[in-house]
Design brief:
This protein is an all-alpha fold. Helix content is about 75%, strand content about 0%. It is globular, with a radius of gyration of 19 Å.
Length: about 200
């Protein structure tokens, strides 16, 4: 009996740029607030729900379909981070819960910092661009946690915002690099692949 083997080729697009841009653009806009450029407003909350939250969750589900556990975990987790951050603000505003104090926010941010630090270890198998994204994000979470825990000065919080702006732009770079490199069929913007 002659058995035939059928191979199925994955012809779906790369969802990583969507997730990276959803994360990066929302992170830049929030950290422009942290750096003191404007007050927390509905623009940031809307980006947190729609692009930072929604787009990353969609990208994570698409990465699951591709069998990419790292990207699924990252995008779905950070998408839900954005939704939970908006919920923390909105639930208190509508009276559905007590506002989070500095200590509870420090714990929240420190847990996200711990998660991100472990995910950073995973990027050591991927590329330099993602190492910058996850490394600066871990630092950002720990700076934010420290700022809340110690009731840090306005100057420290503004410095943290600038670090977050850099983190967000590093994710935007990583996302756009993948789009342009695929479109042109060559390295337009390098990602710095790691030799495995």
């Amino acid at each position: 009996m002659n058995e035939s083997v059928t191979q199925i080729k994955d012809t779906t697009g790369n969802p990583a740029p969507l997730g990276l841009l959803g994360f990066g653009m929302t992170t830049v806009l929030l950290n422009l607030h942290n750096a003191g450029f404007y007050e927390l407003n509905s623009m940031i909350l809307a980006m947190g729900i729609c692009y930072g939250g929604g787009a990353q969750i969609v990208a994570g589900i698409m990465e699951w379909r591709k069998g990419n556990t790292f990207a699924t975990t990252a995008f779905v987790s950070y998408g839900l981070f954005w939704l939970s951050l908006v919920a923390l603000i909105v639930l208190a505003k509508v009276g559905w819960g007590a506002p989070s104090d500095e200590k509870s926010m420090a714990a929240y941010l420190a847990m996200w910092g711990f998660f991100t630090a472990v995910m950073f270890v995973g990027t050591l198998r991927l590329n330099r661009a993602l190492q910058v994204v996850f490394g600066t994000l871990a630092i950002l979470f720990f700076l934010l946690a420290y700022g809340d825990y110690t009731n840090a000065s306005t100057g420290f919080k503004h410095f943290t915002g600038y670090e977050g702006i850099f983190c967000g732009f590093s994710a935007i770079y990583a996302g756009l690099a993948q789009v342009l490199n695929e479109l042109f069929g060559k390295t337009v913007l390098p990602l710095g692949p790691v030799k495995k």
